[in-house]
Amino acid sequence: MRREVEVERSLVAHMDKFLMELGRGFAFVGRQVRLELGDQDFYIDLLFYHLELRCFVVVELKTGQFEPGFVGQLSMYQSVVDDVLRHQDDKPTIGLLLVKGKDETVVRYALAGFTSPIGVAQWQEQLAQSLPDDLRPSLPTIQEIEESLADPPGES
Predict the structure, then answer these.
(1) Which of 73, 135, 151, 154 is 20 to 30 A from 109, alpha carbon to alpha carbon?
(2) Residues 95 and 78: beta-carbon distance below 8 Å
(3) CA-based angle 52:58:63, to the nearest 5?
């Protein structure tokens, strides 16, 4: 959890550069966006809106190995965003799950049956490989994101 917070803070500190590297059309909506469900609070790590695709993009950061339960959490966040924030003309929310490592077979079975657009990527691989086709050209690689986080804000 601590590493996830550090990654989030780095992303926010580099938000201008990060958004430019994500590609044209991304707008930052918020960090640790609170969702109130029943008597519980949940928090989306990062929330974006893509102006060209006309959809929200929920990003969940996990510093450990992929766990099937992460997909359920991300799917729930997507459902809430679709129900509460999404305009009737918007496309369904895209979910991006960034993990330290993953087993492709476990991911495949964990995603089986889900109809929402969800991408699962390791920090060491290209994020775009696991995303819906129409979003792939708009995103940088994980390596590019990590490199941008290594530079102090205001420096390039």
Answers:
(1) 135
(2) yes
(3) 135
User: Residue 61 to residues 51, 84, 99, 130: CA-CA distances in angstroms?
Assistant: 22, 22, 6, 15
Phi and psi dihedrals of 45, rounded to 5? -60, -55
As a whole number of angstroms, the distance between CA 37 and CA 20 comes to 33
96: part of which helix (H) or strand (E)?
A: strand 94-99
Please report the pLDDT score of residue 43 as a whole number.
94
138 backbone φψ class: left, alpha, beta (φ>0; ψ -120 to 50): alpha
Write out 18-35 in H/E/C secondary structure.
HHHHHCCCEEEEEEEEEE
- pTM equals 0.68
Query: Residue for token digits 């695709």?
Result: 53
Closest CA to 121 of 156, 83, 95, 82: 95
Q: What is the pLDDT of residue 152?
A: 46
Question: So what's the pLDDT on residue 21?
Answer: 60
In order of 59, 129, 152, the CA distances from 121 in angstroms are: 11, 8, 25
Sheet holding 55-61, edge to edge: 26-37, 40-50, 55-61, 94-99, 118-122
